[in-house]
Design goal:
Elements lengths: L11 H31 L3 H8 L5 H15 L13 H25 L2 E9 L17 E9 L3 H4 L12 H33 L2
Antiparallel strand pairs: 1-2
Helix pairs in contact: 1-2, 1-3, 1-4, 1-6, 3-4, 4-6
């Protein structure tokens, strides 16, 4: 059975916003890796590549562009009917889907508000103090917590009702997943894609 993580030495607000910042920089690395793949696939200069890539302002649009361009240079099935995609195409598609699956959390981090909660409990027992109960302050302790949630006005659309609030722990997990995705993009470009492009352009 896994042991609970030790309490953070940082104040809750500092820990929470530190993870928000780490998630943002992790996504910036994914963006950078996608740009590098686009430059390699097009076989163009980084300057020309930047004009094409950064003309698109959304990450989803950039991912779609790189996906389409990458698949265009990867090996195609021998026949159209019943042929399985090439291993390189399967590798890239799985990687693209993994990145795409993380983007809804990225949107939540970038566009949804932060909620701060203060919860009081009894010092002796640790039980929560019921709302409206008058208790001497020296008999209580409190926990300050933060989370990113879908705002009430946006929930009226009925599109984001299933999104769970993002706490420091879930932001930490998301950051690790995005960092891993960036690493896999770099490895794909340096190994699989580079080898294929080198042989295709001989």
């Amino acid at each position: 059975m896994s042991q609970p993580a030790p309490p953070s030495p940082l104040p809750p607000s500092v820990e929470f916003y530190s993870y928000v910042g780490l998630c943002i920089t992790a996504w910036a690395k994914v963006d950078e890796e996608l740009f590098d793949i686009l430059v390699d696939v097009l076989g163009t200069s980084r300057e020309l590549g930047s004009i094409i890539y950064y003309r698109i302002t959304s990450l989803g649009g950039r991912l779609g562009l790189v996906d389409e361009l990458t698949l265009s240079v990867l090996p195609k099935p021998e026949t159209r009917n019943g042929a399985h995609p090439h291993a390189l195409a399967l590798e890239w598609t799985a990687l693209r889907k993994a990145v795409q699956a993380l983007t809804s959390t990225r949107t939540q981090i970038a566009h949804h508000p932060v909620d701060r909660k203060i919860e009081f409990s009894y010092k002796d027992s640790g039980d929560a103090v019921p709302a409206g109960t008058a208790v001497p302050i020296h008999q209580t302790t409190w926990v300050d917590s933060y989370s990113i949630y879908v705002g009430q006005s946006e929930r009226l659309r009925g599109k984001n009702g299933q999104n769970k609030p993002l706490t420091a722990d879930s932001l930490s997990s998301h950051c690790q997943q995005v960092q891993a995705a960036a690493t896999k993009l770099r490895q794909f470009r340096a190994a699989s894609l580079a080898a294929h492009l080198a042989s295709a352009r001989v």
